[in-house]
Design goal:
Elements: H1 14-39, H2 47-59, H3 64-94, H4 100-123, H5 134-156
Length: about 160
């Protein structure tokens, strides 16, 4: 992939880069999970209802605005920052021979495990990985797609090795 020839002064700051990478990745995730996948006859992802389950478990009652916030905060802030501040630096430090693109794919799998095992199962009380049904595999593709778009966006803006 070709990146923009940005100098350090032209490269957007971390907040701006994260907003852009997170927005692009969240749109890709939602478009895939709520349009492309069901359009092809596969499961429809429902991240906001899952977030609402988590909120209900934590607070005792569901609250749609908080569920929307949780979904968009994770997608536009937390998950992209996880890539640029944690996953990619760890990959460079611990496994420098592991290519960045493989780290990006692995990060998508980690996001999937976090969403479907920790959030959906351990917190919300659903079966582990939602019972390994069709939604499980659509969610895997969606989270890997998210990681790919976020990482490529950061790289295109000059945030790379």
């Amino acid at each position: 992939m070709t990146t923009l020839p940005l100098s350090d002064t032209a490269r957007p700051n971390l907040i701006t880069a994260t907003a852009i990478a997170g927005a692009l990745a969240t749109v890709a995730f939602d478009f895939f999970g709520q349009s492309i996948s069901p359009g092809l006859g596969f499961a429809n992802l429902a991240p906001v209802p899952l977030a609402n389950q988590v909120i209900q478990v934590l607070t005792g009652s569901p609250w749609e605005p908080a569920a929307q916030f949780l979904h968009y905060f994770a997608g536009m802030v937390a998950y992209p920052l996880g890539w640029i501040l944690v996953a990619e630096p760890l990959r460079r430090r611990i496994l420098p021979a592991f290519p960045w693109w493989a780290g990006m794919l692995a990060y998508g799998v980690v996001l999937w495990i976090f969403a479907l095992y920790i959030m959906a199962h351990l917190i919300a009380g659903n079966p582990a990985f939602l019972g390994f049904t069709g939604i499980t595999w659509v969610a895997l593709v969606g989270h890997v797609l998210f990681a790919v778009v976020a990482a490529l966006a950061y790289r295109a803006m000059g945030w790379r090795d």
